[in-house]
Amino acid sequence: xxxxxxxxxxxxxxxxxxxxxxxxxxxxxxxxxxxxxxxxxxxxxxxxxxxxxxxxxxxxxxxxxxxxxxxxxxxxxxxxxxxxxxxxxxxxxxxxxxxxxxxxxxxxxxxxxxxxxxxxxxxxxxxxxxxxxxxxxxxxxxxxxxxxxxxxxxxxxxxxxxxxxxxxxxxxxxxxxxxxxxxxxxxxxxxxxxxxxxxxxxxxxxxxxxxxxxxxxxxxxxxxxxxxxxxxxxxxxxxxxxxxxxxxxxxxxxxxxxxxxxxxxxxxxxxxxxxxxxxxxxxx
Length: 284
Ligand code: APR
Description:
Largest sheet: 6 strands, parallel
CATH class of the largest domain: Alpha Beta
Order of helices and strands: HEHHHHHEHEEEHEHEHHEHEH
CATH superfamily of the largest domain: TPP-binding domain
Number of helices: 13
Number of strands: 9
Structural class: alpha/beta
Shape: globular
Number of domains: 2
CATH architecture of the largest domain: 3-Layer(aba) Sandwich
Distance between the termini: 22 Å
Helix content: 40-55%
Bound molecules: adenosine-5-diphosphoribose
């Protein structure tokens, strides 16, 4: 493990455009369950995962009913509400520190908990949205959830909440299964994957698409640059070689398919701070 920590620090120091990709695993040490780990939400409640696959269709068909179900006292949605109160852990803080010293350009996270921002990361792409926001299904505008009194709308039978710009239906900013990734975030993420020469993947099972495509885009830039109609930096700038470092409790398809250059098995809250310490040591 020590040798891999040293190698990751050396690779980070030598990188020109390093980005981090994160999943629910980086937040488990903040007390938030992941989805597919041994204590995962889907692992323990497979019926909830099935419901989650149907949620977007129900929202589109009957937004009022969907919102009323979500705001019922014991709804699954209330659980997500809880995660907004958690605190960042040493893994989040380590990534924020790497950004602060100019060694990490962006974090692309699947997590909706907002913990990277709470830890101090500035450039965070919330690939699956954020629990603290509402988003308009018509014009895509986002609003802080705190600006809407959802409980009052619920009591007064005034759901769904409406967009202040176009009066469209608002939904939680979190991306549902079957819902498109918001274009702004999707494009920025592909661009970052095409530009990076180092990708640090932390705490994700890498089984949910299109997020799990990002490491493959980084690994096969030329092919994707052509396919994406040249999206991303001019080919000259996109570094074709990339170091993909995976930090996870368990191996994933990225490990097995050798998309990752190397795999550091362990807890992100332990491994990432050790990489930061090693970076500081090597830069002395
Ligand atoms: N340190 C490192 N790895 C961890 C830790 C930890 N402290 N805790 C859990 N893990 C690992 C688990 O072993 C698992 O491989 O993190 C991974 C988390 O995987 P998932 O639970 O599948 O979470 P994620 O990859 O983020 O899921 C992607 O699925 O349900 C959707 O929208 C949801 O964004 C989520 C998406």
